[in-house]
Amino acid sequence: MSAEPAAGAPAELSPLDEARFGVKSARAREVNTQNLPAVLDFCAVNQVEFLVARCSTADISAVHALESAGFHLMDTLLYLRFDLKKTPIPPNDSSVLIRPVRPDEVDQVGTLAFTAFENFYGHYHADPRLDPRKSTEVYVSWAQRCCTEPSAASLVLAAETEGKLVGFRALRVNSPTQGEFILAGVSPEYQRRGIYRAFIVEGLQWCRERGLEEVLNSTHVANVAVQRACARVGFEPAYSWYTFHKWFQ
Ligand SMILES: CC(C)(COP(=O)(O)OP(=O)(O)OC[C@H]1O[C@@H](n2cnc3c(N)ncnc32)[C@H](O)[C@@H]1OP(=O)(O)O)[C@@H](O)C(=O)NCCC(=O)NCCS
Q1: What gap in Å lies between CA 71 and CA 133, rounded to an integer?
Q2: I need a surface site. Which of 82, 163, 171, 211 has the fewest CB within 10 A?
Q3: E-assigned strands of 22-163?
Q4: pLDDT for the residue numbered 196
Q5: CATH 3.40.630.30 holds for 82-239
Q6: pTM, two decimal places
């Protein structure tokens, strides 16, 4: 559920986090015992104050090294995978209209993201040093970027019912074979009516029509709604990541 550093680099600066939270920020992907010193050096050289670091849940020595270095666990991301080659996509049985978002609906998507992600339990909200409202605004601006920047998302679907926009689902084509569901939210008063499931089914259809072979969906390990919907449709667990934060001051 978030942008990652370039492959190969130990870490990279995060201008988006810096602009949002007002502290020099960086991100590190796949930290392990070998590259942790390089990650810490990168932060020292660049005077980083706030670091977001991911490590595999299978790498317990990395977890212990991060704990010893003063990192704090903020969330656990579970990746689910749908095999488009062998798994049939069930029908969309929702009466809610699922369609591509329109250019004039970017502000509405932002408002929807605010209501859906207010009080969310992702790694930003989990950190007591980060302003909760600013943490919610991370998702607002991310959802809006998905609507306006092709590098952020390949498609944003909207759910419309009773003449209102009540949900959004962004997805991205990662490669000629892989799609990824990246961000979704449903207006609280329209939750538990199968709208997220409808997004999954329509999103999978879109990916299959483009010849993709698999679709990934990552979710907070405590997000039962996403996991239930994905399990029913035919996603399978693939791998998982811990998200740690480190404050240098
Ligand atoms: C997660 C979210 C998108 C689900 O949307 P939704 O339209 O309510 O989901 P659905 O109605 O399709 O429900 C999917 C399944 O989850 C269950 N469910 C929905 N909300 C639930 C909740 N709060 N607690 C437990 N189960 C829940 C439903 O009962 C359904 O399971 P079932 O098939 O066994 O009945 C919505 O709760 C939301 O916007 N949450 C905040 C943002 C978020 O978590 N986004 C996803 C990560 S990017």
Answers
A1: 23
A2: 163
A3: 25-28, 50-56, 72-83, 97-100, 155-161
A4: 98
A5: yes
A6: 0.94
